[in-house]
Amino acid sequence: MAASWTSFEVCEDLVRRGDKDRYLTTLFAPADRRPALQALYAFNIEVARVRDLVSDPLPGEMRLQWWRDALTGCGHGEVGRHPVAAALIDTIDRFDLPLDPFLELVEARTFDLYDDPMPTLADLECYCRATASALMRLGIRVLGAGDCLPATAMAQQGGVAYALTGLMRAIPFHAARGQVFLPEDLLARHGADIATVLAGRETPQLLAALAELRKVAWAHLCDAGGCIPDIRREAMAALLPIALVKPYLERMDRADYRPFASNCVVPQWRRQLVLWRAARHAQRCGEARSR
Q1: Which residues contact 93 (CB under 8 A, 6 or more apart)?
Q2: Which spans of this chain does the record mark as coiled coil (predicted)?
Q3: Does pLDDT of 254 surpass 60?
Q4: Are the C-beta atoms of 170 and 254 separated by less than 8 Å?
Q5: 167-176: Cβ within 8 A, 24+ apart
Q6: Is the pLDDT of residue 75 over 80?
Q7: Cα–Cα distance between 63 and 131 in angstroms, integer?
Q8: Which of 56, 87, 114 is where one domain is finished?
Q9: Where is the domain boundary, 59, 80, 114?
Q10: With contact defined as beta carbons under 8 Å apart, do 86 and 3 qualify?
């Protein structure tokens, strides 16, 4: 299905407004690949915000099922009338993207609709791989580097670090709507509980649990960093969001970190600088390998 250029413009505007960091990373991609990346990220925004658009889980389940139908060809004419879906299907066809990662991402987002606790740390890491990591792997394919194993490995590890960090930053937002992504086994290990998080109470036990989760994020980030020297330059734009993990984790590691306050903010200007420096570093690495 060929999408109109207007559909891609809708995606660009949605990503610029709803996911500024990822939008900025697309500017480092070749001009002919940017619309496809923005279609991926617009799709991610659409499924990630389903809970915020519905009053209870059932309508949310129906919206996610609509995306499953659209991806598998069961959406009929409705897909063409939805600009993000039209641009996404066009992108999938053009770049021969596999459907499974998209369907797994939609399935993972089903968890968002409910207030069920995240059982274990392993479950949380699986959620991160099915969402942020999958998006990066798909982006790598769009950029023509799907056969670059180091880039895929970096997406796998870095995506988990990126998602874990984002979920820790969003603790006040999630708690306010009755949701906790911190795994039960991690909280129990430190004597904390979900009720404490939902009440917005900062306790030594909760801070200890978050400190352990940050160590897990740091470990994934370290593993991702080990792939940098071997990734192809073409894959860089899809992996750039990983560069933002370090400054956020560093802020959370400070003694004045408060999980329910707003003191864990990296200013927009600094995030742009971090992305620019990471892109420059990747370019220099690519030039050095080509010599």
Answers
A1: 1
A2: none
A3: yes
A4: no
A5: 167/124, 167/128, 168/210, 168/213, 168/214, 168/217, 168/252, 168/259, 169/248, 169/264, 171/197, 171/259, 171/260, 172/200, 172/259, 172/260, 172/261, 175/199, 175/200, 175/260, 176/200
A6: no
A7: 17
A8: 114
A9: 114
A10: yes
Same domain, 187 and 123: yes
Cβ–Cβ < 8 Å for 85, 130: no
Sequence-ordered list of residues with C-beta below 8 angstroms from that of 98, at least 6 positions apart, any chain: none
Q: Is the pTM of this model over 0.90?
A: yes
Domain count, the chain: 2
Mean of pLDDT values over 25-41? 97
CB atoms within 10 A of CB 215: 12
At residue 5, the pLDDT reads 67
| Gap between the Cα atoms of 51 and 57, Å rounded | 7
Residue 65: partners with Cβ closer than 8 Å, 6 or more residues away: none
